């Protein structure tokens, strides 16, 4: 991605954050712990955010959480097939003055063929005990809770 596009996306995000401060919007989203047949966890890197994240995004009106998480996996990592989907719970996330509700799911047997986009510049699978440097704190917490079999915490 060119530096100009990256700068433009960051500028847009800054303006959007100011709007959120004024309006305090409420959004619904989803995140996936996507597991490959080998048991690796799929993570993504965005063009406009630092670090490795769980794939996910918006939960559109009329969609179930399961439909939303599967759509996001197709869009972000190029998921071509999957096995069982299990919803783990819902988190409250309060970044940048928003009021977000994020549903977390485990999706097993994920096969994917990633292609970079303006939003997602990299997707890769990692062993759960060998996660990459730069994983975000929230992503690390969710994966640790999942690996230890603990309920997910209330805050992202």
- Rg (C-alpha, Å): 15 Å
- What is the number of helices? 3
Structural class: alpha+beta
Largest sheet data: 7 strands, mixed
User: Quaternary status of these chains?
Assistant: single chain
Determine the strand fraction and express it as a percent band. Answer: 25-35%
Number of strands: 9
- For the residues shown, what is the average pLDDT? 86
Element pattern in H and E: HEEEEHEEEEEH
Task: Point out poorly predicted stretches.
Answer: none
Percent of residues in helices:
25-40%
Morphology call: globular
Termini separation? 29 Å
Short description:
This protein starts with a helix and ends in an 8-residue tail after the last helix. It is globular and about 40 Å long.
Please provide a written account of the structure.
By secondary structure, this protein is of the alpha+beta class. The protein is 29% helix and 33% strand. The protein has 3 helices and 9 strands; from the N terminus they run αββββαβββββα. Strands 1, 2, 3, 4, 6, 7 and 9 form a 7-stranded mixed β-sheet that branches. The chain is globular, with a radius of gyration of 15 Å.
